[in-house]
Design a protein that fits this description.
Blueprint lengths: L4 E11 L39 H13 L3 E2 L2 E2 L2 E4 L9 E4 L6 E8 L2 E12 L3 E5 L2 E5 L6 E7 L6 H18 L11 E10 L10 E3 L5 H20 L7 E6 L4 E7 L9 E2 L6 E2 L2 H8 L6 H12 L3 H9 L1 H13 L7 H9 L9 H12 L6 H14 L1 H8 L5 H13 L5 H18 L1
Parallel strand pairs: 12-13
Antiparallel strand pairs: 1-10, 1-11, 2-6, 3-16, 4-5, 4-15, 6-7, 7-10, 8-9, 11-12, 13-14
Bound molecules: zinc ion.
The site of zinc ion has 8 residues, from loops.
């Protein structure tokens, strides 16, 4: 076994679903739109165009910071991050450098605390499309509001990373600020990974794996990297500081380019956008929009409604499903219905998101209604069942109590749900006794 500990930090990009882009009036929803139909001088970076920040995007980024237990900065500003790449027509990206919107947060997962370094706002870049030997550029995505969440290098286990990302994904959906659809690229995951002999000592290198679009792939990429880096170190080679890509098919990572240091970007304050000042009452107003978060909901379901933890977890994962559960709960379908009855109806359905409140209500009612049993048919089915299973009947007579359940199963199936299991057991037992007395 190796003595190395993985040291992992995360950068997560989330596209906000505001109506317009970050600094102009173009629509922000760019998915599957005809290329270059949603652009203007601002998001194309034409000379003289002036960016105006989208207030909603700023508020939502602050809201996310609050949901992640961050301190919101009272003073914040935008900066230019200078680098050259074809998907960036201005030659710089408007981002935030030394005064991000919020800092120093955390998320608790299964009793472990993972610290969040910062949450800041920036603009997305254009998209490169490779067609044959040509590369085309679509600027519809250019300028779409993007929140970047940076964690501390607090993770030592790829499974913890996966759990953290799942929780973050659920929170983002709860807040309603992004679809966080990874297939469409509206949530992008970048772990940076190194290994160390001392858990408290950051190695002087790290490997960043770019743009992974599933939680499982992140876990696989981390596991692969940890193994690769340990193998290098054990051969007395130092892993290179670099950016790598993830190959889904081979489940491996591959070298892309050596990693730029922050100073390579030459950040400087964006001169066209005045610094932002947030008063305490403004931040409090945003805070008042925070919904009950998934972990709090889960705990409440367990404590107040006595649901099993796994059931409460499943119910609370999707805010729409959770809302339906709570709506039916409030309607109070009838007196003898417990929260668990409603939960069971929802949990038993495969497609929970399309289930309506009305359907849940009806199903709960139906299940709680006493079943009308045709006693004549029941007696007939019981007789047939006893006749065709003499060996099982003998077993039961010899004292094997379990044998009766086998017979109950057959009778229930024949009755097609039109009989209560307890009634069937009683009738079966008394019938066997009667037959016994006769013989
Ligand atoms: Zn525009």
């Amino acid at each position: 076994m190796s003595d190395y500990t993985p040291i992992i930090g995360l950068e997560i990009h989330v596209e906000l679903k505001t109506r317009s882009k970050m600094f102009c009036q173009c629509p922000a929803d760019h998915f599957a739109k005809k290329p270059n139909t949603q652009t203007c001088p601002v998001c194309l970076g034409l000379p003289g165009a002036l960016p105006v920040p989208n207030k909603k995007a700023v508020d939502w980024a602050i809201l996310l910071g609050l949901a992640l237990n961050c301190k919101v900065s009272h003073e914040s500003k935008f900066d230019r991050k200078n680098y050259f790449y074809p998907d960036l027509p201005k030659g710089y990206q408007i981002s935030q450098y030394d005064q991000p919107l919020s800092t120093d947060g955390y998320l608790n997962i299964d009793g472990k605390r993972f610290k969040i370094h910062r949450v800041h706002l920036e603009e997305d870049t254009g998209k490169l499309l490779h067609v044959g030997t040509d590369t085309l550029i679509d600027f519809n995505r250019s300028g779409v509001p993007l929140v970047e969440i940076v964690t501390e290098p607090d993770f030592h286990d790829s499974e913890d990373v996966k759990r953290f990302l799942e929780e973050l994904h659920t929170i983002v959906r709860y807040l309603g600020i992004s679809d966080a659809d990874m297939e469409k690229g509206s949530m992008r995951l970048e772990p940076n990974i190194s290994v160390s002999l001392n858990i408290n000592e950051l190695p002087n290198y790290k490997v960043e794996v770019k743009n992974i679009n599933s939680f499982r792939y992140v876990r696989n990429a981390i596991d692969f990297e940890v193994k690769r880096q340990i193998e290098l170190l054990e051969k007395s080679e130092k892993p290179k500081q670099e950016t790598r890509g993830y190959d889904e098919k081979k489940q491996t990572t591959y070298s892309q380019r050596s990693k730029e240091e922050a100073q390579d970007y030459r950040y400087f304050p964006e001169p066209d956008i005045p610094p932002m000042v947030f008063k305490e009452e403004y931040i409090n107003k945003i805070k008042s929009n925070l919904p009950e978060l998934p972990s709090a909901k889960l705990n409440r379901y367990v404590e107040k409604f006595n649901l099993k933890k796994q059931d409460a977890y499943t119910l609370s994962r999707d805010i729409n499903v959770a809302n339906k559960f709570e709506t039916v709960l409030k309607i109070q379908v009838s007196d003898n219905i417990k929260p668990a009855d409603i939960a069971n109806v929802i949990l038993n359905k495969k497609d929970r998101s399309s289930l309506t409140v009305e359907e849940i209500k009806e199903e709960v009612k139906k299940r709680k209604q006493p079943i009308h049993t045709d006693e004549k048919i029941l007696a007939l089915i019981i007789d047939q069942t006893l006749k065709s299973n003499p060996k099982v009947v003998e077993d039961y007579k010899k004292g094997r109590e379990n044998a009766i359940m086998f017979l109950v199963g057959i009778v229930m199936r024949e009755m097609k749900g039109r009989a209560d299991a307890k009634l069937v057991i009683d009738k079966l037992k008394s019938r066997i006794e009667k037959l016994n007395a006769k013989s």
